[in-house]
Design brief:
- By secondary structure, the chain is of the alpha/beta class.
- The protein has two domains: 16-183, 3-Layer(aba) Sandwich (Rossmann fold); 188-386, Dehydroquinate synthase-like, alpha domain (Up-down Bundle).
- Helices cover 50% and strands 10% of the residues.
- It contains 13 helices and eight strands.
- It has helices spanning 27-33, 45-49, 52-60, 77-89, 101-116, 188-207, 213-235, 240-260, 264-276, 280-309, 319-336, 353-361, 376-386; strands at 16-19, 39-42, 64-68, 94-99, 136-140, 152-157, 162-167, 175-178.
- The longest helix is centred in the C-terminal third of the chain and has 30 residues, at 280-309.
């Protein structure tokens, strides 16, 4: 899957990134930079109990007008609607999200409703808006989703029992504050699968149909950082340097896939998550090497570059041999950090694989997979290997 000689592309990264230990202290200044004075915090109860939400409220000071802390692991359309109603009552003119991808995606939906009105169901789709949405500062407490710099959001429609992928360039967060201190308390298992989520973003950005030179550079850099620092983050969670490097990797991978797009791994992971509640990063971790094997006849040259970034490409290796080395390295990394290797280990029922495959076909990510997928049997081939 080499570049065509007539390659052309558009690259976009509008988010202002504020990185550093204790960079949370810059939050009020960043609100002022956006000329906003009524900040509404979106978070979850776990971060309230951990005392992190209180730190954010203190950093906001008099700018803080309210907090919504009802975000679940997989946020829902109804959650976004509820949060927006409260934020509107508080007169919010800026959103601050504190949490993982589910929290940040909830705030993206709220940003739309505060500007456009209605319910989130009225705004399903891609690239629908013609004006900037409500300003949003994202403060990730995991280092995986990259949602702090992406144009997409995923929420679950509980009535349809389906994850909805929507997005627009106008909802990319204005600012991302990356403070390694805020990820120190992340449990090892969550550190592990959110880190593998970031690796998936980087590798899918490399094989996706909109891959281009700038995103390649960012994705390769992210892979190198993840391979080097994710095990340390899992094994020594208080290591602030490793935590910071993993944050940079996750954000860089997020920028890469936000431009290059993703593929079958995410389509199937969204579907397994919707039907069986498998955490998104964990589903990605399990599916990634199997999708790479499925795609290798279309993009072995790309996966050979992944092998190089992971440090497993040896002199004289051909593309196919290097691809197999990269696949083995993905397996080895997920095993080292203690993650399950099969869908059968995370609650997915064998009898439901067909439903996961069918649902995957309707996921927007699948159209960017390097190998054309047009029927559920193709997805089943991967799911059976991963089961």
């Amino acid at each position: 899957m080499a570049y065509d000689t007539d390659l052309s592309f558009i690259y976009k990264n509008p988010t202002r990134i504020v990185f550093g230990v204790n960079s949370l202290r810059d939050l009020a200044a960043e609100c002022n930079e956006l000329k906003c004075s009524k900040a509404f915090l979106v978070t979850d109860k776990g971060l309230v109990e951990a005392g992190l939400a209180e730190k954010v409220e203190a950093a906001l000071g008099k700018l803080h007008v309210g907090t919504f802390d009802e975000c679940p692991q997989d946020s829902g359309v109804h959650i976004v609607n509820q949060a927006a109603d409260i934020a509107r009552e508080k007169g919010a003119d800026i959103l601050v999200s504190l949490g993982g991808g589910s929290v940040i995606d909830t705030a993206k939906g709220v940003a739309i409703l505060l500007k456009e009105g209605g319910k989130l169901e009225d705004h399903y789709g891609l690239q629908l808006f013609t004006r900037p949405q409500t300003p949003h500062i994202a403060i990730p407490t995991t280092a995986g989703t990259g949602s702090e710099v992406t144009w997409a959001y995923v929420v679950k429609d509980w009535e349809k029992n389906q994850k909805i992928l929507c997005g627009d360039d106008h909802i990319i967060p204005n600012t991302a504050i990356l403070d390694p201190v805020l990820t120190q308390g992340l449990p090892p298992r969550i550190t592990a699968f959110t880190g593998m989520d970031a690796l998936t973003h980087a590798i899918e950005a490399i094989h996706a149909l909109q891959a281009e030179p700038i995103t390649d550079i960012m994705a390769f850099g992210a892979i190198r950082l993840i391979v080097q620092y994710l095990p340390t983050c899992v094994e020594s969670g208080d290591d602030l340097f490793a935590r910071g490097q993993q944050q940079i990797a996750a954000t860089t991978a997020g920028i890469a896939f936000s431009n290059a797009q993703i593929g079958l791994v995410h389509a199937a992971a969204h579907s397994a998550g919707a039907l069986y509640g498998v955490p998104h990063g964990l589903a990605n971790s399990i599916l990634l090497p199997h999708v790479m094997k499925y795609n290798m006849d279309e993009c072995a040259d790309r996966y050979a570059l992944v092998a190089d970034a992971m440090g497993v490409k040896e002199r004289g290796m051909g593309d196919e041999e290097a691809t197999l080395a990269a696949i083995d390295a993905v397996f080895a990394l997920s095993k080292r950090i203690g993650l399950p290797q099969k869908l059968s280990e995370v609650g997915v029922e064998e009898s439901g694989l067909g439903q996961v495959a069918e649902l995957s076909l309707s996921d927007g990510a699948i159209v960017y997979n390097p190998k054309l997928i047009y029927e559920s049997e193709q997805v089943m081939e991967v799911l059976k290997e991963a089961y």
